């Protein structure tokens, strides 16, 4: 019988976490279910909330904020070792899971033996598509189209719109390079085979790297749009804190160096590294130009 393990990483958002957990337990899947919450040293009401309102949750407390990869790995490591779950859902705390969504994802994985990971259509609060839920790998060519603005200028071009696959019908089931860690269902056996999240990535990029390794092992990755999950995605703020900005661009460097630098000409590598640095400096500068009351530094 199938058993689903859900892993939710939380950091200082007890309100979103409560809504996310409530949505899961309001319409649990037909298969056996266990939910893990890893609290990344929130130091707020998050841990008491889970203990009081959701005592069935397996709660892990990290003494420090260890980031997305290491935090999720605290639960993933135990799930793989216990080997009782057949599938594992990586789920953000800022998501709401409608009735039937978990069953839809689990059923697709059960019915397609060559698929290692599957993800739903993620909808933002305004009803638009979260474009990160189906992506191509950011190869030097694809990254150039995105960072140069060509992907924005020509979103319906199969050449320029490859990163977010904006030229494809968002309602079409599609084999893709990568999903997003906000909601991604994997076979537990695939995690055991390819390894846990790479802890070089503090946050951002770890989902791309995981999908890259899954594909290297010969598994398919599928975007499944008839399953919908709602994603707040920084609904509380339109600006990223300085550490978040730094982590975002650090992830770009790590991913490129790990997967593409060795097969890319040195001058191109230099251009890529320089481009990332320039984009990072611009983002940091924009943050610093905000009024002090609006600026986020942590």
From TrEMBL:
One of its GO terms (molecular function) is transferase activity. InterPro entries: Nucleotide-diphossugar_trans. Gene3D superfamilies: Spore Coat Polysaccharide Biosynthesis Protein SpsA, Chain A (3.90.550.10). The keyword Lipoprotein does not apply. Keywords: Transferase. The keyword Manganese does not apply. This is Glycosyl transferase.
